[in-house]
Amino acid sequence: MHSISLALNGKPVHGQVEGRTLLVEFIRESRGLTGTHVGCDTSQCGACVVSVNGKAVKSCTVFAVACDGAEITTIEGLAKGVDLHPMQVAFKEHHGLQCGFCTPGMIMASIDIVKRHGKSVDEETIRRELSGNICRCTGYHNIVKAVQAGAANM
Amino acid sequence: MASATGVGASVRRKEDLRFITGKGQYTDDINLKDQAFAYFLRSPHPHAKIKSINTAKAAKMAGVVGIYTSVDVAKDKIGGLICGWGITSKDGSAMKAGPHPILAEGKVRYVGDHVAVVVADTKEQAKAAAAAIQVSYETLAHVVDAAKAMTSKVQVHDVAPDNRVFNWGLGNEAETDAAFKRAAHVTKLDIINNRLIPNAMEPRAAIGAYDAGTESYTLYTTSQNPHVARLVISAFHGLAPEHKLRVIAPDVGGGFGSKIFIYAEEVVCVWASKHAGRPVKWTGDRSEAFLADAHGRDHVTKAELATDANGKIIGLRVHTIAAMGAYLSTFSAAVPTYLYGTLLSGQYNIPAVYVTVDAVYTNTAPVDAYRGAGRPEATYVVERLVETAARELREDPAEFRRKNFVTQFPHQTPVIMCYDVGDYGAALDKALAMSDYKNFASRKAESAKNGKLRGVGLSAYIEACGIAPSAAVGSLGAGVGLWESAEVRVNPIGTVEILTGSHSHGQGHETTFAQLVSDRLGVDINSVSIVHGDTDKVQMGMGTYGSRSGAVGMHAISKALDKVVAKAKKVAAAVMEASADDVVFQDGSFTVKGTDKKMAFGEVALQSYLGHKFNSSEIEIGLKESAFHDPANFVFPAGVHICEVEVDPDTGHTTIAAYTCVDDFGNLINPMIVEGQVHGGIAQGIGQALLEGCIYDEESGQLLTGSFMDYAMPRAGYMPNLADFKLGFTCTPCPTNPMGIKGCGEAGAIGSPPAVINAITNAIGVREISMPATPLTVWNAMQASGMKKAAE
Ligand code: FES
Ligand code: FES
């Protein structure tokens, strides 16, 4: 067992983890933050994307112990009180979700795309950058629209 | 005029807030106190005898609570999984259903078959113990290819010596044969409809919990139809009577059919929870989803279309071998029969149609309904044939379709269906205009300048949703009725709860259903909540699949709303001292004709519960009504897809250059949600046409496409660009429901694969190409036809 301390959605968190505990397991199981999802076991779907030290990371693909000292933001930590993040607003406004299962990962990945490519990120870049996030419901059309709109308002 | 939140408005979804903030509650998000974890030991062989299972070592491992096998299943007399639809063969014999135990008994029949389950304190412990179970297998020869099943020496089930589950036929055989005899032209195609793996993004999961104090069970499960799950687990598995079993399907992360069925894992969790004395939770890995979720499609077909000298279609003859996999899943038998053969007339006036289907066992995962279920397979056959016939006859594929369209309604086809209403020409016109079909040649020339081969393909689909009426489907072999239920509870302060037997797994019922209620009762949409997915809250219901929740589910709600309004009118009349006949209800207010007396809906609700101002022996206290609705007919969405592709002749890579889809879904409740359904359906259709194909290795029987790294899912980049993806609608309101709506959930997946393939064959100038049309497949087809050379 390893002791880890990190900041999860701005709150200090301490925990004991096995070496093999994945970050997503730590977030979901130890901390009860179930907004981060697990959609695959091969690091392909992006349902698990969170922000680690400001970068989008597939939390199924990092060990919790490797995140000792990190600042982590999950989907639950995006809104400021009742004020939603512009990307959250855009997903709702543009019907960028149906079943909602891929949505937390999509939103976290999209925010990262905008951070790296700027507010006026073009469609082709969005589509390419979202290739690590699978959605089975929406056909991506409205997700792309949502990302463009969210980007403009970020 | 529709209100901003009423029927016809693109109301933003009420359910979204919890999903965009990470507050959704999917099955795996639920954790019960003291829960243990289940892990299934699965067969590594496609076909083998189980000689022995030794659990002694595993049972002693850390954290193990219990290990169960078919021996324990037999001891407790837990029944096997069932197929709820019985098909009768042409010779009158019943379909040959082999046993489907919840844990394999004596034999395993596909890679992934459930052999044993370990319940332990943690997932890791359960997994480790499962690895320590020693199973001695005697491997048997296997067959994974549907086309070879009937001639194989392998016998998957004793009841079916030639692996044939049934040999079914539909249509007018003699007339069809006669039509082919007098045909001026016959177009023949050999068609494979590729096996698909549904892959809803939320893997299946279940938690079973036994309460020894009340001797009752609760099951949380990823289900599209929790009431049917309860019915089957009670009536067939015999675990608990219905009143002692509560099934809850919380938020469900997509289904596309794969979560209709009752699976071994959920039954085992319920059963094991009593043995373990603790709740038992199972969450499937994606790898398990690939192995053991019911797959879709997998048809091998020979089809031919007869035309007369005027290019009129006079006959269609089809023979299909449909894979069922190793066991008959819950609705499997209905898919290649009554959901397939019945749609083979397409949008066309075809006097003679005859189809035969051989359903076969193979040593693969079971095959059952996947988005469209039978109708995509039918549409693919019809629309590939029609397009090919038009090309052979040198007619414009659009005009060839038009001249064969059904134009008079109602239209009785030779294959059961009676189309109620439609205007196929209108959808075609609109799609041609939106896609600028007439200027295709100039776009083709433009693509050629960039070294690309451009092609265009059409598909004019029809489908049938809201399978009904119950008596009719019963006569065709359904084991259940296909009605829906609703209850409208008006609270004393005028807010409304709708309890529905349908269940959303992404369709947005919490919004669309509330729009209907808001319109009809004149209450604010935020004063309406939708309750579903819990058998303790909602009376019996049939669930969500087959695009039925609008046409059937909302119709039940509509009926219950009618009753609420009728009752409220009586209360209003009593309070306002008028005759109920003189009370008018409009825009949320009750008024008395010819007076200025007026009561708001909320006031009437309150008075209904107070009972102060009417005689409660004449008018019952309260305002709550329920209804069951059994539709009079199917509903028939139809439309036209036009796809343009660009093929890179050097690599065979296909890009969707433009996509236009015009649908007639009747009236739309929420156009935004409807469009979302179409986008998603088309993505799955493009996936089938270009990317997705489940492959079992013939020699080893192993699933080769067992992860997202081997099974290509559509990603954002495969879809047409925003500006090139156009949706349109035409409207012939459905006459069999008061909303005038049809179904929209599956149409995209039904109409799109033939449009894409027709476009590719047009682009590279070949007659046939198989799905998925991967770059390799396309490149090979070009080489074989000499196309590559010509392009150079
Ligand atoms: S769960 Fe992390 S990528 Fe799929
Ligand atoms: S909304 Fe269902 S997977 Fe994306």
Assess the beta-strand content of chain A as a share of residues: 15-25%
The percent range for helix content of chain A is 25-40%
Placed side by side, the strands forming the largest sheet of chain A appear as: 2-1-5-3-4
Give me the secondary-structure category of chain B. Answer: alpha+beta
CATH topology of the largest domain in chain B: Aldehyde Oxidoreductase, domain 4
Helical segment count of chain A: 5
Structural class of chain A: alpha+beta
Provide the low-confidence segments of chain B as ranges. Answer: none
Output the radius of gyration of chain B. 27 Å
Show unreliable segments of chain A: none
Question: Biggest sheet of chain A: strands, sense, closure?
Answer: 5 strands, mixed
Strand order of the largest sheet of chain B: 3-5-1-12-9-10-11
Give a quick summary of the entry.
Chain A has 154 residues and is an alpha+beta fold. Chain A contains five helices and five strands; from the N terminus they run ββαβββαααα. Chain A has two domains: 2-75, Roll (Ubiquitin-like (UB roll)); 86-153, [2Fe-2S]-binding domain (DNA polymerase, domain 1, Orthogonal Bundle), CATH 1.10.150.
What does this structure look like?
The complex is a heterodimer of chains A (154) and B (792). Chain A has 154 residues and is of the alpha+beta class. Chain A folds into 2 domains: 2-75, Beta-grasp domain (Ubiquitin-like (UB roll)); 86-153, [2Fe-2S]-binding domain (DNA polymerase, domain 1), CATH 1.10.150. Chain A has helices at residues 23-30, 86-93, 103-117, 123-129, 141-153, and strands at 2-8, 11-17, 49-52, 55-58, 71-73. In chain A, strands 2-1-5-3-4 form a 5-stranded mixed sheet, sandwiched between helices. Chain B folds into 3 domains: 16-22 and 483-629, 2-Layer Sandwich (Aldehyde Oxidoreductase, domain 4); 31-140 and 201-254 and 259-292, Alpha-Beta Complex (Aldehyde Oxidoreductase, domain 3), CATH 3.90.1170.50; 299-467 and 633-791, 2-Layer Sandwich (Aldehyde Oxidoreductase, domain 4), CATH 3.30.365. Chain B has 21 helices and 28 strands. In chain B, strands 3-5-1-12-9-10-11 form a 7-stranded mixed sheet, sandwiched between helices. Chain B is globular. Chains A and B meet through helix 2, helix 3, helix 4 and helix 5 of A and helix 1 and helix 18 of B. The complex binds FE2/S2 (inorganic) cluster (2 copies).
